[in-house]
Every structure is written in C-alpha cells, then in structure tokens.
Amino acid sequence: MTTLARLLVLDLRVIAPYRRQALITTGIVLVMLFDRPEVILPALIILSASWTASYPFQVSDKAKLETLYAVLPVTRRSLLLGRYLWSLAIFVCYSVVGMAASLVSAHVQNIAFAGPAVAEVLAISWAAFALNISIQYPLYVRFGYLRAGLLGTILPIAVAAVAVTRFHLNIRPDAMWLALIAVAGAVLFVISAAVATIIDPAKSGTARWAVT
C-alpha cells in the first residue's frame, strides 16, 4: 500500500464519528430531490460531499491530532496531498450514489436521462466540487478548521451553488463546453493543492494542522 493510500485509510478512520451524520445528510437530499433526477447529483455534491470532504480537518483540529501527524513517517507534503486524495475519493463515492439514484428516479418517472444529460450533470458536479475544494482546503490548511470552518464551508458552497445555477439557466453546453468544464475543475484542483502547500504554516516544522 502506498503512502497516499495509507493516509486515505487513516482519514477514513479519523472521520468515523461523523459517518452517520454523512449518511443522514445524504439520505435527506435523496429523499427531498428524488423526483428531480437532473438535480440529485449536483445537490449531493454541493450540500453533502462538500461537508464530508471537510471532516478530516474538523476532527483533526477538534481532537488535536497534530501530535499523531508529527510522528507519522510521512512528509508534510504527503499529508496535504492525502487530504486532496480523500476529497477525490469522496467525489467518486457521492457520484456513484447520486448517479445511481438519478437513473432510478428517471426510470421510475419515465424521464429521459441518459447520454448528454448524464455527461452534463457529471461535468457540472465535478466543476462545482473542484471549485469548492479549491477555496475550502487552502483556508483550512492556512488557518485551521476551528478558525476558518464556517467561512471555508459556507463561502465555497455558496459560490458553487450560484455558479451551477447561473450556468444551468443560461448555457446549454455541448461536448466541447463539457470538456472545458471538466478540465477547468481539474486545473482548479491542482492549483489549490499547490497553493495549500505554499501557504502551509507548518511546512517547515512538524507535521501538524494549524489550530487555535
């Protein structure tokens, strides 16, 4: 198992106290929006996946796990990249659940939802998630969850929600648009990881998250 894979497993264990909360939030979104297959996945990504992606930072700060991170045989850069890998895993998991629910919903209601519609939903959901993480994670790395938690969660969710809504209402994307959206999300993700590494206040010291 690689270092990043081990860190991914560690984050999964760290957020154990919040698994039920994540499941409840996901269930509420699915129930409330089950009759709108084209909205299920974007809503899950913005309202549930974004919160779940922040759990490792939240638990680390509240439980003061910087001592644990300090003794791990990994570099600070690996710890940061592990968090981004965690967020990608969260996106994949929620995408599978959301798309399955969307397809079932469309089938039950006899709504056409396939091909271009699926691609559009996936591309927009990915871009919204990447935008969210690109804002959220650097704030958490620089200031810690306890100081930047509210701003680092509400701000990117609001920005992503407005961007998705305006885009959906004003643009009917073709294949090129969807490809550009997906690439833009990936670029934001990479830039965010680079910025987080640069502004990390602990990069020259022990491997710990900033806490108050």
Automatic annotation (TrEMBL):
InterPro entries the UniProt entry points to: ABC2_memb-like
Keyword Ribosomal protein: no
Signal sequence range: none
Annotated TM spans: 84-105, 111-133, 145-169, 175-199
UniProt superkingdom: Bacteria
Keywords: Membrane, Transmembrane, Transmembrane helix
Annotated protein name in UniProt: ABC-2 family transporter protein
